[in-house]
Design goal:
Helix 1 packs across helix 7 and helix 10 packs antiparallel against helix 11. The chain is an alpha/beta fold.
Length: 398
């Protein structure tokens, strides 16, 4: 008889990974060790380990990765201004490389031979986890049950019920949800028709605009070298600052995203996101950059930001390309220090105040009042030189 394979399973406690435990035991003659990364999602609780063991796992690890996630993944993406297709702050995509790292660490510790995950064959996460694992530990094989078993969600539920599993979904609630401290994604069910307005029931972190307060809320965020360090004058850890902003912005209806995005696997997908803190912090960070970077830096960094977002979305976090981009981004952030004032009101996040000790905005150069120190007399010569090529072209060619 073939020796049992020791499989390290990325376990969320959701439908796919719950069903995967008995499926791996039955189809791969495997012993299964589950790994759950706590990245700030509400679904991680004290019963998750017990649930994994009841489902047939040999052992179960729950790793508190919140601080690592914020410091090593979220903050670099914020400094890079990485937003996929101008809408998605990449919460799920940022979490996958850290999960891959934890899976590899446990596999090496336990002597595992394979990594498994619950990703389907048409999603992006399979790429992110497969590429991440194979980059970090090429000797490990990868098993993706949902790519193999050819079960739809109804069949998965039936499969799990027959084996006595405690499942997190019912036939009346077929939404697929993923979350961490940086954002929450919702898909499937009626959301798959892009004509349908998302029902209010799918939202958890944000209130509707109609239920948001009638008066605006003003907050101030301090940055040091591109990183947020304080909220309303109070220094906070990264975890506490993001959690607080998720609550404050979400309570004002800020943070909802309805995105028809281009998946890496070649299809368009309708995704709903809630990312209150991410939306606020990106708006503040970008506003501070306008104060402290020259035009050429801003415009070239916009190009780098798109590259960085694509790299995260495509699962290439552990590439040398990312390390190279980080070197440039780190240089741009040297003087991105200051304070931003934001108004939160009825679903909108508006930057209304900016200050920085390194601001390139000079009031005495910009003003039209008596404080004006701009040399108006130099403008005429500048304009003549600036327009000289076009004047010459008209004379010589027209």
């Amino acid at each position: 008889m073939k020796d049992k394979e020791l499989v390290i399973l990325a376990y969320s406690g959701g439908l796919d990974t719950s069903v995967a435990i008995p499926w791996l035991k039955e189809n791969y003659n495997a012993e299964v060790i589950t790994v759950t990364a706590d990245l700030g999602q509400d679904s991680v609780d004290k019963n998750l380990e017990e649930k994994a063991l009841k489902s047939g796992a040999l052992r179960s690890y729950i790793i508190d990765g919140r601080e690592t996630f914020i410091n090593e993944f979220v903050w670099p993406s914020l400094r890079a201004s990485a937003i996929y297709e101008g809408q998605y702050p990449l919460a799920t995509a940022l979490g996958r490389p850290l999960i891959a790292r934890y899976l590899v660490e446990i596999a090496l510790k336990e002597g595992g031979t394979a990594i498994a995950h619950g990703c389907t064959g048409k999603g992006n996460d399979q790429v992110r986890l497969d590429v991440g694992v194979s980059t970090l530990a090429p000797q490990l094989s990868i098993i993706a049950p949902a790519r193999e078993w050819n079960m739809d969600r109804e069949q998965e539920i039936e499969y799990g019920e027959k084996r006595g599993l405690e499942l997190p979904v019912t036939r009346k609630n077929l939404y697929s949800v993923d979350e961490n401290i940086w954002g929450r994604s919702i898909e499937s069910g009626p959301l798959e028709d892009p004509w349908n307005e998302p029902p209010e029931e799918i939202y958890s972190w944000t209130c509707s605009i109609s239920d948001a307060p009638q008066d605006p809320m003003y907050i101030e965020i301090d940055f040091d070298k591109g990183l947020p360090v304080a909220l309303d004058g109070k220094s906070l850890s990264g975890i506490d600052l993001v959690k607080k902003l998720n609550f404050l912005a979400g309570s004002n209806g800020v943070g909802r995203i309805d995105h028809l995005e281009n998946r890496l696997v070649g299809i368009k997908s309708r995704e709903i996101y809630e990312s209150p803190a991410a939306i606020v912090l990106h708006a503040c960070h970008n506003a501070l950059e306008t104060m402290t970077l020259v035009k050429e830096q801003q415009r070239f960094k916009n190009f780098v930001s798109q590259q960085y977002a694509d790299m995260i979305y495509n699962g290439l976090w552990y590439s040398s390309h990312r390390r190279d981009l980080d070197a440039y981004i780190s240089s741009t952030q040297e003087y991105v220090t200051g304070k931003i004032r934001v108004k939160l009101f009825k679903g909108s996040c508006s930057v209304v105040g900016r200050s920085s000790p390194y601001a390139l905005y000079d009031y005495e150069l910009a003003t039209y009042d008596e404080s004006d120190k701009f040399d108006h007399s130099s403008a005429e010569g500048f304009i003549k030189l600036f327009g000289l090529p076009y004047k010459t072209q008209t004379i010589k060619q027209d």
